[in-house]
Design goal:
Layout lengths: L6 E6 L5 H10 L3 E7 L3 H10 L4 E3 L3 H4 L6 E4 L3 H13 L3 E5 L6 H13 L4 E4 L6 H10 L6 E11 L8 H16 L4 E9 L9 E8 L4 E7 L1 E13 L3 E5 L7 E10 L11 E9 L8 H15 L7 H19 L5 E2 L6
Parallel strand pairs: 1-2, 1-4, 2-3, 4-5, 5-6, 7-10
Antiparallel strand pairs: 7-11, 8-9, 8-15, 9-10, 11-12, 12-13, 13-14
Helix pairs in contact: 4-5, 5-9, 7-9
Length: about 350
């Protein structure tokens, strides 16, 4: 491992997300991109044109055999994550894998054990966690908006239909990673409903509700069949409320000094009079740092210092365990299902 000249890195998968990883790796002096791998000849041809000084290959096992490679970035279909990640860890490579970490919490635990056995850093590419908007939400959520009361998100568009995962595993996973970061609460059960409108494909529209022991609730609406693209989240607190619109070009975060209070007189305590509070709305300044850049910095620091990454494998397993429970609830038409893996 050469910290001075940068860690030797490889990108496995050059379809949708791999090019973004490659672009950021080339621009980051802490990494040296040596390989790009993809089974598609079209993807390989594209990679050769964009990165003529990088080895472009079709078999990822060749990367794992190269002892000079320190870290691999996996951006392949979710059904392949477990096998490729486990083989990379067995080869002593540090791994950053695209969401979800694996297809089951059992697979996640297996990967955690493999990473520990080989003293490798395993990290999940939950990119939204590193965005300036979500980092600001976390800051405000722990300081000025009071006790967290609810999380309500809409994440819909006319999206790419996938065969190996349903819409919750594709889109709701982003909200689950945000929740795992901005809230200290652990969900205990879920309820999920949805529908698969296209024969041969999984659920393309779904509604997920998370239940907690605390006075907090979360709801997520996801769809690949919406005529418009919406990425809007509400985080409600006892003092203030946050609206996060990821499609807003400038003011992605708005903080509303609005809420309610219940202050009954002794005579009115049974009628529970509700008072409404409405004051200013402000949009805090967000830094311009790209989320992928910060994620690479987190990965590098975890490798070189031994510090646990913010989106490490335990976070990934918590999210997968929620999605597992959601799949069971979907099959039972929304019946609540307890989450088997807790905060680890």
């Amino acid at each position: 491992m050469n910290k001075i000249n940068g860690l030797n890195a490889a990108v496995i998968g050059f379809g949708y997300w791999g090019p973004n990883l490659a672009r950021n790796l080339v621009a980051n002096q802490k990494f040296k991109l040596k390989y790009i791998c993809d089974q598609s000849s079209t993807a390989r041809d594209r990679a050769k044109i964009q990165y003529p000084n990088v080895h472009v290959i079709s078999n990822y096992l060749n990367i794992l055999e190269d002892r000079e490679i320190d870290a691999v970035f996996i951006a392949t279909p979710p059904s392949t994550h477990f096998t490729i990640t486990k083989n990379a860890l067995k080869s002593g490579k540090h791994v950053l894998v695209e969401k979800p970490l694996a297809r089951s919490s059992i697979e996640c635990m297996n990967l955690i054990e493999e990473a520990d056995k080989n003293s490798c850093v395993l990290m999940v590419d939950h990119t939204f966690t590193y965005t300036s908007a979500v980092r600001k939400m976390k800051e405000l959520g722990s300081s000025s908006i009071g006790d967290l009361l609810y999380y309500d998100s809409i994440r819909i568009n006319l999206g790419i239909f996938q065969r190996d995962i349903n819409v919750l595993w594709d889109l709701a996973v982003h909200d689950l990673s945000i929740l795992d970061n901005v809230s200290s609460y652990t969900p205990t059960a879920v309820s999920a409903t949805g529908h698969a409108h296209v024969e041969g494909y999984p659920y393309n529209t779904a509604y997920l509700t998370l239940f907690y022991n605390e006075p907090f609730i979360a709801h997520i609406h996801c769809s690949w069949m919406a005529p418009v693209k919406i990425r809007k989240t509400l985080l409600g607190g006892s003092k203030k409320m946050i609206v996060y619109d990821d499609l807003e070009p400038t003011e992605k975060i708005k903080v509303y000094d609005k809420g309610i209070s219940i202050n009954p007189t002794p005579e009115e305590k049974f009628s529970l009079r509700v008072d409404y509070r409405s004051a200013d709305v402000f949009s805090p300044k967000l830094d311009a740092k790209e989320a992928l850049f910060l994620m690479l910095e987190e990965f590098f620091d975890s490798i070189t210092t031994g510090r646990k990454p913010m989106t490490g494998p335990h976070s990934g397993m918590r999210i997968v365990s929620i999605l597992e429970a959601a799949d069971i609830s979907l099959s039972k038409k929304g019946a609540p299902v307890e989450i088997s893996v807790t905060n680890v």
